[in-house]
Every structure is written in C-alpha cells, then in structure tokens.
DNA sequence: TTGTAAGCGTTATCAG
DNA sequence: CTGATAACGCTTACAA
C-alpha cells in the first residue's frame, strides 16, 4: 500500500489549525502509528527503508509530536523547571545558562519561573511545575513554605537547591558557602591592614543568604579580635542607589570605617560611583570590596576587589546531578560545595 | 457512602511516587471525578456542600492536577512560550517581567528559552514549544528560519514579535523603531553642536536591529548634510571591554570624532570607564551617548545620555495582545509602536 | 446539580 | 522488525 502519489498535494502551505497527528504521518508512510513512534524515538528500531519513508512523511505533513500525549502515556516528560528569585538581576544568568546548556545537550527543556523573592511565589510556581509533571526542579531559594515542601516530597521528583549550602536540604544541594565567603573576604581586608571594616548586606528578613553573610562577617571579626560595632553592619535594598547611600552614611558617621564590604547585588559599584562624584579616594579614604564578580567591577576606576563565585558551574553541576537522578544513574542525595575565590584589585 | 473515618490515615506524610489522580480525590469526597473536575475549574458549578468536601479531599491527598492530561483532553494549555536571544543581558529582563506579570495575572505560565542569538537556536526552541502545545509564543528575534516560520504558520497559534518594528511580521508585533531611535539620537547630538559623530553598533551580520540602527544613524547624517565617514561607523561585539576598545580606536585615529553614539549593549559604559582611566574628559574631549536606559548609565560620572525604550511596556502589551488572541477577544493581527524618549545627561 | 461515555494523541506491552 | 490493543488522567458532550 502506498500513499497516493503527491498529485495536487498542497503539502502544508497555509494549513492552519488542526495539528497533524502521528496517525497522519503513519498513513502517509504506509505504516502503523507505533512504527512512527519508534522511528522518531529510536531510529535503530526500525528498518532503514521504513525510517526513510517516515522521515519523508514527517517533513511532508510538518508533523510536530504532541508531548502532552507522550508525557501522559509514558508518565515522564523532558521538561525541567527552575525557580529564580528575579530575572532583573544578571547574577542568576550564569547559573541559568549553565543549567540550560547541560539540559539542552541532554535533550531536555528548561522552564523558568520568577518568584519575586517570596516563598509564596515559589510555592505557586512549584505547584504549576508539578502540574506540568516536570521531570525535576531547580530551586534557588532555600526557604520554602511548608506546603511547597510537602508537595515536593509527595511528588518524589529530584530537586536541586542552589542558593546556599547551610540550609537543611530538601533533596540535593549544589552551591558555595555564603558564610565562608563573607568570612574570607572580611579576613582578607583585615590582612590588608584595615581595622574598621563595615559590612552592607541586602535585607536579611526572609533572606537566608544575607544572614549567612552577616554571620561570616561577624565570625571573621571575632576570630581576629575586632569589635563588632553594630553601626558598621547595615542592610540596604538592592540597586546602585542603595550602595551610594550606604557609603555616604557610613563615611559621614562619627566613626567612619576604613573599608566597606558590600555583600550583595551591585551595591559596591553604586558606592564607587558615589565616591567618584564626591572625590573620595578609593582605597585611600575608604576601601571597597564586593561579593560577586560582575563584569562591571573589573572595568571601573579603580577596579573593585571581590569574590569570584562559581555561578555557572553551579548551574552545570546542578543540572548534571539532577539528570543523573532523573535518568536513574544515581540514587542518593548529594551536597556539593563548589567553593569561591578572592579577587584582589585596586579598590582595597 | 462516606470515606472511612480518618483513622490511621497517614494522609500524605512521606508518600512518594505515584501521583494522586482526580479519581482518588473523587473517591475520598464521595463524588464522581467529573464533579471534582468541575469543582476545581468553576466552583460555582457544584453545590457548596460538595465543593467543601472536594476541597477537603484535595488537601487531604495533596492532589496536584495533571495538566498533561487536561491539555490533551481539552486541546489547550495555559503555557506561553518566550524565546530570548540571551539571559546574560539584563536588557531583556524588563520585557520578560512585563510578560510574566500579565501572564500570571491571567493564570498562564511562562516558559522561557534562550536561543543564543541564532535563528537555528530559535527554530529548535519553537519546535520544542510547539511540541508542548503552548497557547502562544513571544519571539524577540525578527529573523527566522524558513522552517520555523512554516511551523508557526501551520500551528496557527498567536505569535508576538518584540525585537523590531521594521520586519515583515509573522503575526503581531509590539516594539519600537530601532531606526527612528538611532536617527533621533544622532540628530540630538547634531543639535547639541557635535559635527563628527561616530556610531558603534553590535555586529550587523544576522542582526536586523543593528542594521536598523545603522540605517537610522546614516539617515540622520544625510538629513543634516553631514558626510558619512565610513571610519566613524564601527561594529563591535557586546561587552564593556568592546566599548573601551572602540573609543580608544576612534580617538586615536587620524580624524577623531567629537561624539560617539554607542548603539547597543553596555558599550557606552565600557567606553566611559576607559575615558576615566585615560583621563579623557567627557564630554569636553569626546561626548558619549548610549542606546538603552540601563541603571548604571545614570550613576556613572558623568551620567550618560541615552534613549529610554519601553522595554517593560513591550512585555506587558505584547502579553496582552497575545492573551486577547488566545482567549478569542480579538482576531486580527496588530502592530504596536511604543515609541522611545531621549534622555539628555552630562556626557553630551 | 451530578454522572456516564467517549475520546484527546501518545507509548507500554505483548503478539506475530 | 512491525502491529494491535489497552492504558495514561483528564475534559467535552450529553443524559439523568
């Protein structure tokens, strides 16, 4: 049985609406739908001649498989969900790209959702992802609602958290230690000779990472016998303007610091620009250090000392351990500490 | 018939694996699955008593609907796909957030894919999204492969392009005019008295937006009778370092410009930092203008003149017109020009 | 207001 | 290597 010769076959030109099904491809190729399914998923399972006919038919009718049906039937999908606090902040993009690269190479799709730094937002996204029956989930937050945790537990899919190492993990964790990093930078400043070291973090309310960094800062001071002056520990919202405001407030205080460690976002860059505007010499009048190796810090004058965090590597390794579990290559849970590096530049 | 009283009912504690189905909820609530379906999608269609029982059962078993099944059955999903060239670049995030906000408010999910500035990457993502039977698609690129265009045509779902106004649209467009914006900024520089105006864009190969901006620049020069010196039109890859390199090359050339218009990415910021390093006064020695109102340009010294583009509004309006079509409130295609503004600052 | 029956388009399973 | 058949979990259409 052959399909009628392609006489007066409009192929697909302006066809619109009803999607073609596997059955249409099968008919045209003169085989059963099951054979089409096999040809598409594992070409080695059908004869070369049939494979050719199927491929031709797929092209001719412009067949796009229906993964809703496929997923329903096989009880598995090739979609991985990822929840990030925000997309404004280019901090998360290296991680996203790492995840994306590994996933695509393995034939998976990435679905990203933005939860706006709120556990409720995260819960809603987790529910939505679970409803799509994602094969696994990457979470940046480490603070979850009880409901979200319960859903995740019941769903029984692999989950990787990437935001912090200190939290009691839901399942797997791939990250670096916020506390150790903050401690290391504070000690570095001390080693360079600074003795009144201020620290500015993002608001710690509901932000485990900020709290970890504050803890690291305090631990460092304690270990070298410096007093932890509460006036030297500030919290500011994200943004360049916040960094500017913070440095002004600190330097105009009765007992100004000789170094400021900005443990988050682009605060350090904002502070540097403010120093440029006011003619405050960096690092002579005040040394400035940052937390993340964003491109800009390398290009400003003077370039800003900072921590290099393994953002992209976190994404890659996270996706890898997730895939290992999804595809059954590994079973247990893992916790990976990817470390960090101090980058010493002109600002300190 | 009532479910057995919750004696020795472990509820969900550590249950894991087999997801609960609508049938389980129905059984527990003592109704048919159809009633559960109704209760979940339109509570007004079931009696209050039943509704309460269903809600309780849903909670008790931790039911998460299976949208693969729902979508397959109803032939529609609540997922919208979005393809962006890159996620490094925070330029796209306002648009993504605009889309995300409107979609979530309407109960839709956003699925984001990164195509790496390549039409082939876009094609792959379009295929993947279509396979998930997304309800609609947002595309930033305006240059598509023939195959991608054909798939989109056949799928018959609404598509919004947001990258540029000039392209012959696939379906709907919501954007601003890259050409008009570049022209306006060039004219603005001329009006301020600059007479040798250079322009630096991203590589134009395969980038319609860069070509549009170059066209606008040339049109502006022509309209005021300035010669278009080819030495003053450069193309550079994205990044702060590129901007630095460009300004050095231009200013050290035999006939240096008195103003440089950086029509893309963070080039202008990179150039400004280089000027700071070299002690080149801005704007006295050279004026600098940028294309996009990124936060940093407002905070550097001097602040950089630029164009304010309706990035977030593009996302919101784009999502709105997409939803109008998805939900059948509108039929035809639309093209929306959201305009732009010139922001004059100290760098010019 | 509620329930029954018949798919939706795939894939798992088992026969040939 | 290929095909028939029965799910997968939900919704549409109709009936009660």
Question: Could you characterize what this model shows?
Answer:
The structure is a homodimer of 348-residue chains. Chain A has helices at residues 22-29, 33-41, 48-61, 67-74, 93-105, 119-131, 146-155, 178-191, 208-223, 240-251, 267-278, 295-299, 311-326, and strands at residues 79-84, 109-114, 136-139, 159-161, 172-175, 197-201, 233-235, 259-262, 287-289, 306-308, 335-337, 341-343. In chain A, strand 1 (79-84), helix 5 (93-105) and strand 2 form a beta-alpha-beta unit. Chain A contains 13 helices and 12 strands. In chain A, the strands form 3 sheets. In chain A, strands 2-1-3-4-5-11 form a 6-stranded parallel sheet, with helices on both faces. The first copy, chain A, has 348 residues and is an alpha/beta fold. At the A-B interface, helix 4, helix 5, strand 2, helix 6 and helix 7 of A face helix 4, helix 5, strand 2, helix 6 and helix 7 of B.
Please tell me how large the radius of gyration of chain A is.
27 Å
What's the arrangement of strands in the largest beta sheet of chain A? 2-1-3-4-5-11
Pair of chains with the largest interface and how many residues each contributes: A-B, 60 and 61 residues
Assembly state (oligomeric): homodimer
Main β sheet profile of chain A: 6 strands, parallel
- Which outline of chain A best applies? elongated
In the predicted model, the low-confidence regions of chain A spanning at least 5 consecutive residues are 1-14
Helix and strand sequence of chain A: HHHHEHEHEHEEHEHEHEHEHEHEE
- Beta-strand fraction estimate of chain A: 5-15%
Q: Helicity range of the residues of chain A?
A: 40-55%
Number of E-state strands of chain A: 12
The secondary structure category of chain A is alpha/beta
Contiguous helical run count of chain A: 13
What is the CA–CA distance across the termini of chain A? 80 Å
Mean pLDDT across all amino acids of chain A: 92
């Amino acid at each position: 049985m052959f399909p009628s010769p392609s006489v007066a076959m409009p192929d697909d030109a302006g066809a619109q609406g009803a999607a073609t099904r596997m059955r249409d491809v099968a008919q045209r190729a003169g085989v059963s739908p099951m054979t089409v399914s096999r040809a598409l998923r594992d070409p080695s399972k059908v004869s070369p001649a049939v494979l050719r006919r199927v491929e031709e038919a797929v092209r001719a009718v412009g067949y796009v498989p229906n993964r809703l049906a496929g997923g329903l039937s096989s009880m598995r999908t090739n979609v991985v969900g990822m929840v990030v606090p925000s997309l404004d902040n280019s901090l998360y993009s290296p991680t996203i790209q790492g995840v994306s690269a590994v996933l695509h190479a393995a034939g998976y799709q990435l679905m990203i959702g933005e939860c706006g730094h709120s556990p409720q937002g995260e819960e809603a996204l987790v529910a939505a992802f679970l409803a799509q029956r994602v094969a696994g989930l990457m979470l940046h937050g480490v603070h979850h609602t009880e409901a979200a945790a319960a859903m995740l537990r019941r769903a029984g899919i692999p989950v990787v958290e990437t935001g912090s190492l200190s939290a009691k993990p839901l399942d797997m964790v791939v990250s670096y230690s916020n506390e150790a990093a903050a401690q290391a930078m504070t000690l570095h400043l001390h080693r360079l000779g600074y003795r009144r070291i201020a620290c500015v973090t993002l608001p710690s309310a509901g932000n485990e990472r900020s709290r970890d960094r504050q803890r690291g800062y305090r631990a460092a001071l304690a270990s070298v016998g410096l007093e932890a002056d509460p006036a030297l520990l500030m919290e500011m919202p994200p943004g360049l303007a916040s960094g500017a405001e913070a440095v002004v407030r600190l330097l105009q205080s009765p007992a100004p610091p000789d170094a400021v460690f900005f443990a988050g976002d682009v605060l350090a860059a904002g502070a540097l620009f403010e120093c440029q505007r006011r003619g405050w010499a960096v690092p002579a009048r005040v040394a400035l250090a940052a937390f993340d190796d964003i491109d800009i810090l390398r290009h400003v004058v003077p370039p800003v000392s900072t921590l290099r965090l393994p953002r992209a590597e976190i994404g890659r390794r996270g996706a890898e351990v997730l895939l290992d579990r999804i595809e059954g290559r590994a079973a247990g849970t893992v916790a990976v500490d990817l470390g960090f590096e101090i980058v010493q530049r002109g600002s300190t």
